[in-house]
Design brief:
This protein is mainly α. It is about 70% helix and about 0% strand.
């Protein structure tokens, strides 16, 4: 967990992470897991939660959101 918290070291990035947490109604742990998966890429992190939100709204399990979907739907 310490590595995940270290990734959120900068204040701008920490504010971004808190915004994600509030916008998508997810826990900070979920946000930090996305940081561990996608690094400091704000676009990939936002895309990941957009994909999860889309799947949830369509009645599909949001656990199906993966890095491949994020890369296809939100290319770098």
């Amino acid at each position: 967990m310490k590595e995940k918290i270290d990734a959120a070291g900068s204040s701008d990035f920490a504010i971004f992470l808190l915004g994600i947490e509030q916008k998508y109604q997810v826990s900070l742990d979920e946000v930090l897991e996305a940081v561990a998966k996608f690094g400091f890429s704000k676009g990939k992190i936002t895309g990941y939660f957009e994909v999860k939100s889309f799947l949830k709204n369509k009645g599909l399990p949001p656990e199906h959101a993966n890095a491949g979907m994020v890369s296809r739907w939100f290319p770098a």
